[in-house]
């Protein structure tokens, strides 16, 4: 069965974004979880999809123009992800959004459809976020792996990674790596039973 792998960037106090609605401490949003070779589709929530599509479309169309979250010209890794994302199927969990610019984006109306997706043949699935979607899919026992990049920062005010997780989930540490800029990469397998 295909794995569903969540990748999130967090501060030490577990914030995924500041009070302005984005993580201004993240200098690039490329795939630094190392997932690109092993996935062939992305899953994300309706809350983040419109901004996500807009962000990566802007980079794909105008790779030399500074982008709004980082305020800098995209890195080569971001340009690579922008091209990959535009041609990779995206499954958006939403009951309200009905259209997308990317032709390979489709909408799923419930988490059962994500369970079905895992049963289909293919490479692994990347769960891009956001916070509520990640929490509900973890609670439903559908997320197999959690990849975190921890930034050396106490962010203070902001949105927490798992504001709505309802259950305890055991994690098994699979890999730890120190990255540039004092960041830490953590890879956990998620146990899908209470403990
Ligand atoms: N730091 C990071 O690595 C990172 C990564 C990704 C995202 N983010 C942040 O996450 C934020 C978005 O997160 P969010 O929590 O506001 O929104 P979200 O998880 O992207 O989307 C939530 C929406 O998904 C739909 N949905 C349908 N069924 C659902 C279910 N069973 N469980 C959960 N959602 C369901 C609902 O949309 P409908 O009302 O349309 O049905 C719901 O409003 C963004 O602002 C972004 O900054 C951070």
Strand order of the largest sheet: 5-4-3-6-1-7-10-9
Radius of gyration: 16 Å
Q: Name the hetero compounds present.
A: NADP nicotinamide-adenine-dinucleotide phosphate
SS summary, helix count: 4
Helix-strand topology string: EEEHHEEHEHEEEE
| Average pLDDT metric | 92
Q: Could you tell me the strand content as a percent range?
A: 25-35%
Structural class: alpha/beta
Q: Major beta sheet, specifics?
A: 8 strands, mixed
Number of DSSP-assigned strands: 10
Q: What is the overall shape?
A: globular
Please give the alpha-carbon distance between the first and last residues. Answer: 24 Å
Name the poorly predicted regions.
Answer: none
Q: Determine the fraction of residues in helical runs and give it as a percent range.
A: 10-25%
Comma- or semicolon-separated keywords:
about 200 residues; alpha/beta; 8-stranded mixed sheet; two-stranded antiparallel ribbon; 4 helices; 10 strands; about 20% helix; globular; binds NADP nicotinamide-adenine-dinucleotide phosphate
Task: Explain this structure.
The protein has 195 residues and is α/β, with parallel strands linked by helices. It contains four helices and ten strands. The strands form two sheets. The protein has an eight-stranded mixed β-sheet, with helices on one face. A hairpin with a 5-residue loop joins β9 and β10. α1 packs across α2. NADP nicotinamide-adenine-dinucleotide phosphate binds next to β1, β2, β3, β6 and α4.
